[in-house]
Amino acid sequence: MQKKTLILVIVISLLGFLFLINKENKQKEYLESEIPSQKTKKPESFSIVLSEYNNSGQSGLATIETKNDVVVVKIRMVGTDQDISEQAHIHKGSCVGLEKEIFKIAPVINGVSDTNIIARWDELIASFPLALDVHNASGSDLAACGNVVF
Q: Which end of the chain is more exposed for a tag (fewer CB within 10 A), N or C?
């Protein structure tokens, strides 16, 4: 009789253990399906700190985001001269090593530039690493630059 009881206890213990493992796996599957993975989720916007270059006295913040299948670039700067147009671009590479210009951005005037660029969001992300630069009024020197990171 003791042998049958021992076998019954072992079987019940194994069934309980299998039930707990199955429950844990189901919870894990549920959580993975409900919470998007940070590794696979693509960002929908970037903020870029534009740091002063060449003692320009200019700095700012830029945002790149997607809205209704359009990539929107907004630049807001301080220290710019009134009514002076300054060229801005998105380059491949970084501020330390600017490479090929990928997109021309509307000129920064009075510290502001808003541009809709013709590009798909996934194309932009595939171009990383990127940098956004603003030139001084003469266009000869960088006034500000920021690396696009996420």
A: N
**Cα–Cα distance, 146 to 126 (Å, whole number):** 18
Run of H or E residues at 59:
strand 59-67
Query: pLDDT digit string (tens) for 19-30?
Result: 656 655 555 555
Q: How far apart are CA 73 and CA 30, in angstroms?
A: 37
Contact between 27 and 21 under an 8 Å Cβ cutoff? The reply is: no
Task: Tell me how far apart the alpha carbons of residues 143 and 150 are, in angstroms, rounded to a whole number.
Answer: 23
Return the pLDDT at 123: 84
The CA distance from 131 to 111, in Å, is: 18
Indicate the domain borders of the chain. Answer: 1-41, 45-148
Residue where the block lists tokens 């019954």: 8
Angle CA(36)–CA(40)–CA(44) in degrees, nearest 5?
85
Tokens read off for 75: 């630049």
Q: What is the pLDDT of residues 58-106, one digit of tens each?
A: 999 999 998 877 899 999 999 998 999 999 999 999 999 999 999 999 9
Class of the CATH-defined domain 45-148: mainly beta
| Helices marked H in the chain | 2-34, 121-126
